[in-house]
Amino acid sequence: MPTGSAASYAVVTGASSGIGLELARQFAEHGFDVLICAEDEALPAAAAELRSSGTSITVIRADLTTYQGVEQLIAAIARANRPVDAVVLNAGFGNGGRFVDIELADEMRLLQLNVVSTVHLAKRLLPAMVGRGAGRLLFTASVASTMPGPFYATYAASKSFVLSFAEALRYEVKDSGVTVTALMPGPTDTNFFDRADMEATPAGEGKKDDPAEVAADGFAALMAGKDHVVAGALKNKVQVAAAALLPDSATAAIHARLTEPPEVTA
User: Fold this and answer.
1) 228 in a domain, yes or no?
2) How many domains does the chain have?
3) What is the secondary structure of 68-107 as a DSSP string?
4) What is the CATH number of the domain that holds 152?
5) From first to last of its 266 residues, what are the pLDDT tens digits of the chain?
6) Residue at 2 is within a domain
């Protein structure tokens, strides 16, 4: 597997914890200098962990749900004045519950982060990679992207967008020297379920994958130039395969059994 050199530089969003932090760790341990970005207070502690690898870690705290926050990150990348060898667009969150019960502001914030900032960053960073004829772009999608997602409908739909967007960009740049890879994790042991208010759902209470293992799968797929990787447990791959065969009404019902909050079934 190719590894970084003194000149290799990666950017990872949503890197303060969970899969994002573990992806940043993969880059650092493989010799990349890494710029990590998130909006929460855990980011400096994450940077301190990563610096033990001996590579350079740059911290940018920015709210990527806003246009200004995305441009703040872009400006920081520009100040580094070096080519970006790998970009990981990982930042995202979910809103659990019935769509009719979730505040509009919460749904719009989700869409701004999961969808709008993803397009914004890709628009700013991908052209330079294509112009240089080199680079790797990793999008964190989800197993949820392959089927309707009742009780976190906006999240699942946003990840369907991310997967479709990644696949389309991969085709467009296939002869440019740039690769695009989609990482598709299943339920993972991160703060996702807590933040989404989904801890009491079957998915929230069930067994989850180790984020370090998910990140290792994603990093390996990215460095190999793969189209996508369904990371983690075998059940994730089975779920994706079933989604390709069953009608949406059936996959929605199966998915709902994992995401339905207890107050709906009470």
Assistant:
1) yes
2) 1
3) HHHHHHHHHHHHH-S---EEEE-------S-GGGS-HHHH
4) 3.40.50.720
5) 344 445 699 999 999 999 999 999 999 999 999 999 999 999 999 999 999 988 999 999 999 999 999 999 999 999 999 999 999 999 999 999 999 999 999 999 999 999 999 999 999 999 999 999 999 999 999 999 999 999 999 999 999 999 999 999 999 999 999 999 999 999 999 999 999 999 999 999 999 999 999 999 999 999 999 999 999 999 999 999 989 999 999 999 999 999 999 976 54
6) no
DSSP state of 145: G
Domain that holds residue 55: 9-265
- Residue 224 maps to a domain: yes
Quote the CA–CA distance of 86 and 246 in Å, as a whole number. Answer: 35
Told to judge if 171 belongs to the known catalytic residues of this protein, a careful annotator would answer no
The H-or-E segment that residue 206 falls in is none
**Which residues in the chain belong to E strands, given as ranges?**
9-13, 33-38, 57-61, 86-89, 135-140, 178-184, 228-230
**Residue 3 within any structural domain of the chain:** no
DSSP state of 48: H
Three-class SS state of 172: helix
Catalytic residue from among 9, 67, 152, 155:
155
Q: Closest by alpha carbon to 87, among 161, 160, 31, 9? A: 9
